[in-house]
Amino acid sequence: MASDLYAICFDAIEPAALARFWSGVLERQLADDPHDGIAILPDDDTGFRIRFVPTGEPKSGQNQAHFDLTSTCPEDQQQRVARALELGGRRLDIGQGADAAHVVLGDPDGNEFDVIEPGNNFLAGCGVIGALACDGTQAVGYFWSAALGWPLVWDQDQETAIQSPHGGTKLTWGGPPVKAKTGRNRLHFDLTPPAGGDREAEIDRLISLGATRRDHGQCEAGWTALADPDGNEFCLR
Q1: How far is CA 51 from CA 20, 48, 68, 206, in A?
Q2: Is the pTM value of this prediction over 0.90?
Q3: What residue ranges define each of the domains in the chain, with the CATH number in brackets?
Q4: Who's near 99: CB < 8 A, 6+ residues apart?
């Protein structure tokens, strides 16, 4: 048995505003979150919540993780970009070059995301959120495969990717060089123990896989703060 990916969680200066932005971009329903935040609900059984919780810390530096949004044709890519800009996003230059086929944008809090060109075979069939693309080592890809029970769908040149057995969004790690962390991650995973599982036993299992306990304010009261082998924070409900 393995943990379930309950949500991808954003620390946000204005959670409600950021949730409205992503709800509009993804065309998904907003809902009150039972854990003192606001959330976007998944649109099918392969999805996860996207949660937005308040923080007083402004964003600094490029995020360790970002969404790669897919498109079905050039017009669909253009429309997705235009919609994001209308909702308060902006174009970003992170060195991608003028001839890049993907479009790099920032949400109203400055969180980077990409709108990928049509015809990307790696993200085919993954849904609108094709991937959560993360900085990370090969070892951390192996960790998350074991933590979530998701098989590796890519493992080459120290780049890894995992995907739920049911399909949906891929979680990817780009291998070296890995950007140095400059503080608490803006995005983190929220996990729940396996159905019917013992929470303390699951914490012990995650630690045996290479996680460490953390004592910080990223998780809500009653949740357990942990970090993966690369030091990326995550929370167990």
Answers
A1: 11, 9, 17, 22
A2: yes
A3: 4-236 (3.10.180.10)
A4: none
